[in-house]
Amino acid sequence: MRFTVIAVVRHTVCRVSADLDGACRSPRPPGLAVLAREWTRIGCIGFGGPPAHIVLLRELCVQRRGWLIDEEFEDAIATTNLLPGPGSTQLAIFCAWRVRGPVGAVVGGLGFVLPGLLVTVLLAALFLAGAPPTWVRGAGAGAGAAVGAVALQAGVSLLRPGWSRVAGAARARWIAYVLLGVAAAATVGPWLVIVLLGCGVFELAWRRPRNSRTILEVHAWPVVGAVIAAGGASGGLVALAWTALKVGALSYGGGFVIIPLMQADAVGQYHWMTDAQFLNAVAIGQVTPGPVVHTVAVVGYAAAGIGGALLASVIAFAPSLSFVLIGAERFDRLRQNATVRAFLGGAAPAAIGAIVGSCIPLAGALTEPWQFGVLSGAAFVLLALRRGAVVTLLAAGAIGAAVALNGGPLPT
Known about the structure:
By secondary structure, this protein is an all-alpha fold. The protein has three domains: 1-29; 30-110, no CATH class; 116-405, no CATH class. It contains 19 helices and no strands. It has helices at 2-21, 32-45, 50-64, 70-80, 87-127, 134-164, 170-187, 192-207, 212-219, 221-232, 236-249, 258-269, 275-287, 295-327, 331-336, 338-357, 359-364, 369-384, 389-405. It starts with a helix and ends in a 7-residue tail after the last helix. Residues 1-26 and 211-232 have low confidence and may be disordered.
C-alpha cells in the first residue's frame, strides 16, 4: 500500500540520519487522550469551514507533530474530496485513523464534531423557541437574509477550479451538468439528489459507451433507491432519517449542496420549519465551529426536539466515519479508480451548480424589504470585498437585531 511504503521510507531515512547525527526521530503515535484533546481543540476553534479545517489539521499533523508527511496529507485531501458527504469531517477522521487506527478515528471524529454540535443544538433551542426575544428574532432574520449570498459565494468559488480540470469536448458536458444542478436546486427540491446521481451515471456511461448497459445495471441502483426513498417517506422520524442520510451519504461537492436538499424537505414537504427558521438554521451552521452539516441538527431539532437533533446528527455523520473505517486502506486505489472519477466527472459539476442555484430559493424565502438590502450588501462584501462568511453573517445578524430593537418589521 502506498501509505505503508511512504511510512517505511520515511522511517528508514530517519534511522539513517539518526545514525549519522542523532537528529532525526520517527514520531511516536500519541495516546488517545492527546488525540482527543487535539481534535477537540480543532472542533472548538474551527470557524470558517473546510479551508480553516485543512489549515488546522495540516498545522497539527504535519508541521507541529510530524505524524504525517506532506504527501500523505495531500493524498488524504484528494481522496476525501472524491467521497460524498462533508469532506473536512472525513479528512479529520482519516488523519486520526492514520495516527491511531480505528479507535483513533472514532475518538478524533467525535472530538471534531461534538463541540460545534453542542453549540448548534443550544442555538437551535434559542432560535426555535416558541417566543424568542425580539432581538433574537431580528438577529436570525438578518443573518438568514445573508445566507443566500454566502451560498452564492461558495458556489462561485468552486466554478473556476472545476472548469480548469476539464478540457475539450468535456467542457460542454461540464456546463450542462452545472446548469442542470442550478435548475434542480431552484425547482425540483427533494429530487435534487436524483439529478446529482443521474449526472454521475450519465458521465460514467458516456466515458465507457461499450459497456454502458452493464454500467447502468450496476450503478443505477443508488438512483432507484433514492427515488423509492424520496417518494416513500411520509413524515416523522423515517423522513427525518432519510433527510439526514441524503446530507451525509448522497451529497457531492461540499457542505452547501445540502441546503436545497434540506430546505425542500424541512420547509416544503414536511413543514418542520418556516422559511425564516430554515434561514436561521443555515446561519447557525455557518457561525458555529465545525462543518456546515451541523445545520442538519437544527432541522432535526425542529422536527423532533433534542432527540431529533441527535438522530439527524448521528445519521448524517455516520457515513463519514464508515467510509474511513471500512475503506481507508483502499483510499489510494480509490483515487486511481476510473469508474469513480468518471462518476464524479458528472456529479461534481452538478453539485457546484446546485450550490449556486440554492441562492434562488433562499432569496425567495425573504419577506421584508430590509432583508433584501442585507442580502445585496452581503453579496457585495463576500464577492467584491472578499470578506469571510462568518464575519458577514455576524454583521448581518447585528443589523437585524438593530432593526428589531427599533421596531422594524420581522418575518413571521
